[in-house]
Task: structure prediction
Amino acid sequence: MALSEENFAKIQEALVDALGVDDDEVTPEATLVGDLGAESIDFLDIVFRLEKAFGIKIDRGELWPEDILTNVKFVEDGKLNAEGLAELKTRMSFADLSKFEQNPAIQEFGNMLTVQDMANFVDGKMAQA
Amino acid sequence: MRWFWIDRFVEFESGRSATSIKNVALAEEHLHDHFPGYPVMPNSLIVEGLAQTGGMLAAEYHDFKERVILAKISKMTFHGPALPGDQLTYHAEMDDISADGAVTSVTCHIGDRLQAEGQIFFAHVADQVTGKSLFEPGQMIHMMRLLKLYEVGRKPDGSAIMPPAEMT
Amino acid sequence: MRFSLIDRIVDLQPGKTITAVKCVSLAEEYLQDHFPRFPVLPGVMMLEAMTQASAWLIRAGEDFAHSMVTLQEARNVKYSDFVAPGSMLTVTADLMKQDERYCSLKTKGTIDGRTAVSARLTVQRFNLAETQPDMACADEIVVQEMKKLYTTLRPASVAS
Result:
């Protein structure tokens, strides 16, 4: 399902305001953490702006699954185990996790989530609403 | 220098909004360094007053059970100076509050003049990071009493806000 | 308490960048309130340290041409770590752009290389006499005092 231009522009605006980056940095392939410099507290800001822009309800854990990434049940040697990956896939069904699956190192997680994943997420939420 | 950047609450609606006042006085030592020859209230300390107003609004909502700390100022704009003799009126509106933290829109007025406006994010911080409490038993509630929170504080249904039973 | 949130200027390249340090000591009075059981440097004091570092970069770069150098806007001020007594916060400010009145800077505070705070600041500079001619004497006093404080913060031995 393609996200409309208008909705993508709203997501861009939310990310520009929350992260203090320029419009042209917010491309679909840009990673939120790696390219745009988002940190944990920024996800609270992003969630708030998306909720306002789209009239949806979001749990911060859906975009920043800290509880999965820090759960001893799911993490072995700094990587997510099979159980953890399954949990992550359920929580973040909107995201393309294929690259992360090849090397599910916790510290690499930040480099995974892209603006396009965010757009898919919003799309999914709007369809549920 | 003690760390009290609001003098009193004048309005407090649980979970919704709060208004407080701060009087700027020549007796305040730091004004004579900022700047020597022309005292003007540092804008960072105005941010603290706004953060204390919004932060206490966020903390009261959870009966002071969560440790609420300043996490992010997405934007804060200043439109003019605050000088000795000015009374600053700080207002915080709760935009959103969740298990993770809170977002408030804040303004500072001097009379009718808008002096500052912005948005502040607070986060709830875990026990393991700071310990169970930031304050000694009873200290927080005593401070709220001094700030007249229980005199002006109201819940949305109009009833008075009472100190949490286990903290009195 | 003296309201200097910078203890020493370590490096200054006029028009470009400044590096300064703020040491946090349990002797700082306000820590007893912030917080009684968990003393840490208040977030707005980190903001003030970044503002003051930016102000020194501007003052030194224009030979103290303006008395008033104040924070006009703060954006994306993010706090990522607590700064406890005994720590040294290294504050840096990079000048991104400026016009006659406003300067935009990227600032941050680090402890042992880890970022504790970052912000984009707009600082304004002006003289009181521009709008209040009889305050020219106040401008002079402020500038003289700021020049004196600068020599304390940046001893001649490290000045380049």
Summary: The mean pLDDT of chain B is 94. Chain B has one domain: 8-167.
